[in-house]
Amino acid sequence: MKQVSLADIRQTYITRDSLAEKTKDYLKIIESYNCRDVSLEIENAALLVIDMQRCFLEPAFPLYTENGRVIIPPLQFLLDHFRKRGRPVIFAAQKNWGEFVDRGPVLRFWWPRTPLEGSPETEIIDEIKPLPAEKVIAKRRYSAFYSTDLDLTLRSMEVRQVVVAGLFTNVCVEATVRDAFMRDFLPFVPADACASFNEELHIGSLRTLALWFAKISTAAGLVGD
Predict the structure, then answer these.
(1) Closest among 125, 109, 147 to 64, alpha carbons compared
(2) Is 40 helix (H, G, I), strand (E, B) or coil?
(3) Is 1 inside any structural domain?
(4) Partner of 196 for a Cys bridge, out of 63, 114, 120, 169, CB 3.0 to 4.6 A?
């Protein structure tokens, strides 16, 4: 059986012009799953921005998706909202120290190449660049919690809720949301501020997260603006 490639599944399914209407459609599709009556309490919340890096957002790199560039404005909106209210913003970036240092045989088998720490491709894109006081966590696996100090950081800042946004909805965003839930942080996911390689993966992940792990909304819907 032929293995599916990234080229096989890559699909530009949103544009900046269509994002709002498409997101309404997605929320309608998952509506029966997305029924938890919870609201974001900004005074208890932190924003986690996942993998908004050059290696995923510039066409020169194999994991590039145009969908990721579409979600930049909603992410900028969330960043502005959290920063103005003095709430924590934490960035997580996929990078490994070395091919045979902290990757492991399973990750090497699954993905023969991954961005290495210190390489330009691991940099967070300029459009949402972290402020000097904002923490950037280097993650070695999909979840921003796995073998990092994210849990300690959030508890030290007395955070109880997390908004998780970025790339990819069905991979590192979902993995981070699942781990947040397991640690008793209440997760929220803005459907217009995360993206996948194709629409099927994006909707499937939103449906799973809504039923089991998180409240799904829009960026503006979450913060009430």
Answers:
(1) 125
(2) coil
(3) no
(4) 169
DSSP state of 4: P
Q: Which domain does 84 fall in, by range? A: 15-223
Q: In terms of Cα–Cα distance, which of 151, 160, 154, 210 is closest to 42?
A: 160
Q: CB neighbours (10 Å) of residue 176?
A: 27
User: Among candidates 33, 48, 6, which has minimal Cα distance to 143?
Assistant: 48
Is 51 inside any structural domain? Answer: yes
- Count the Cβ atoms, other than its own, within 10 Å of residue 54: 19
Place of tokens 């913003």: 89
Q: What CATH number is given to the structural domain containing 115?
A: 3.40.50.850
Each residue's pLDDT tens digit, 80-103: 999 999 999 999 999 988 777 888
Which token pair is 126?
């300029």
What is the torsional sign of CA 11, 172, 203, 2?
positive
**What pLDDT digit, counting tens, does each position of 135-174 carry?**
999 999 999 999 999 999 999 999 999 999 999 999 999 9
User: Any idea which residue has 């045979």 for tokens?
Assistant: 100
List, for residues 192-225, the tens digit of each pLDDT value. Answer: 999 999 999 999 999 999 999 999 999 999 998 6
